[in-house]
Amino acid sequence: MAQFVKKCPECGGINLFLNKEKGEIICKDCGLVIEDRMVDFGQEWREFDSDGAEKRRRTGAPMTYTQYDQGLGTEVGQKSDLYGMDVRDRNKFFRLRKWQYRISTAIERNLKLALAELKRASSFLKLPKSVEEEAARIYTLAVQRGLVRGRSMESVVAGALYAACRRHEVPRTLDELSEASGIEKKEIGRTYRFVTRELGITILPSNPSDYIARFASSLTLSAETQSKSVEILEKAQKAELTSGRGPTGIAAAALYVSALLHGEKRTQREVADVAGVTEVTIRNRYKELLEELNLDKDIKKIKKKK
DNA sequence: AAGACGAAAGTGGTTGA
DNA sequence: TCAACAACTTTCGTCTT
Asked: In this structure, is residue A285 part of a structural domain?
């Protein structure tokens, strides 16, 4: 087992926080990310039905879903099986094998293309390998269940990626997925819902604080501002301000407020852009935050200083 | 002139009859 | 299957810095 850091090398703090899903160790005092490419503790597969469970129990060589045939091929029978068959059986045998060949090559061709696309989009979004694997797995299942029919391959890839991100708590917005894949937001959302429903994948509603780190860094905000906004989010959650609302809007508003409080003001427009929401939404959330959390005084203090 | 604010109307999705 | 509904967006006019 690897040796874990016990103290933050930056500030010497001991409030280290290990996020297994994201593979990060974060110092809660100064916000420093100490290690961000750890081993993935997440499961590699899920059991969707009892057959699947039997077949997938972990024995033998590890499979990878980012390779189109998972390193395994399927073929119906072998020539030596012909021994002892009569003519009718032989014909049937060849027919079956031909079909199997056609079907499997069709699927494989599709997968090969799709997984290339998936890799491209995934690296564009700088997603961790574990998420990419998960997305590939979801896509493979979708193809096997014939869920791609009637939908474009790209949109299913995007949907699978979106789902994988959510499951690993490294959410990307639909806008980002849309930019990476060139598929419309609506379409991604639709296929995402369809695929997850058909495959019985359960996805927890995403947590606003999952977005904070990413938004904060694209706005180049300090670590204090960042942890302050997480604090605000926690309070907001207790005040039941978060349920039913879009997580990105809430995250954006929390960031906006804490940036104000730390004198690192960003315009609503700037925050809105990186969060993929409108200024209006930020304003609404912002107003609610001020009301519920008595931040009015703090804001006024800041204004007076000027 | 740019940013913040808020009202009003429109969109797409969820829910419950 | 349809209508009501909540959240969010778009647009636009007004106020503040």
From this structure: yes
